[in-house]
Write a structure and sequence with these properties.
Number of domains: 1
CATH architecture: Beta Barrel
Distance between the termini: 59 Å
Number of helices: 1
Oligomer: single chain
Length: 148
């Protein structure tokens, strides 16, 4: 039995450890993000028509309240309150539309190159349109900066 314990102890001492990079310690202080989502791909679901290299543009999240899980989204067609999902390595903002679509923007905390960003980001839209009963799914990529 002691030989087994010795082997276990030896393995534990020499086993590689998994390290997760820690996010920017200043991230929790950021209450406003300005995001530039410059490239994207998508598809209209009926008829099946692919779209690529489209730019989404700028999105701003302000009044970010990590504790109450809410923020305000300011986009190209107005503003709305969104849900905030705050994790160790990313924060996501979830907008729901009146017809049941969702828009999710994720900002990846550990990807900044200097304090307050820019952080890598992705925005995914799943939308239903009342005109012609159309639906589309698109994904955009870019960066977000924290504004203090």
């Amino acid at each position: 039995m002691t030989a087994l314990l010795a082997v276990v102890a030896l393995v534990m001492q020499t086993a590689p450890t998994l390290t997760v990079s820690k996010a920017d310690p200043l991230f929790a202080d950021i209450k406003t993000f300005r995001c530039d989502l410059g490239e994207g791909v998508g598809r209209d679901l009926e008829p099946q028509k692919a779209r690529s290299n489209e730019a989404f543009g700028e999105v701003i999240f302000d009044n970010v309240d990590y504790r109450n899980r809410s923020a305000r989204l300011i986009g190209n067609v107005g503003s709305s309150t969104v849900q905030v999902i705050d994790g160790e390595l990313a924060v996501s903002f979830i907008e729901t539309t009146s017809v049941g679509g969702v828009v999710i923007t994720s900002i990846f905390k550990a990807t900044q190159t200097s304090p307050y960003g820019p952080y890598k980001a992705a925005l995914s839209r799943h939308l239903a349109y009342t005109i012609d009963n159309q639906a589309s799914a698109t994904q955009y990529y870019g960066t977000c900066r924290g504004l203090i």
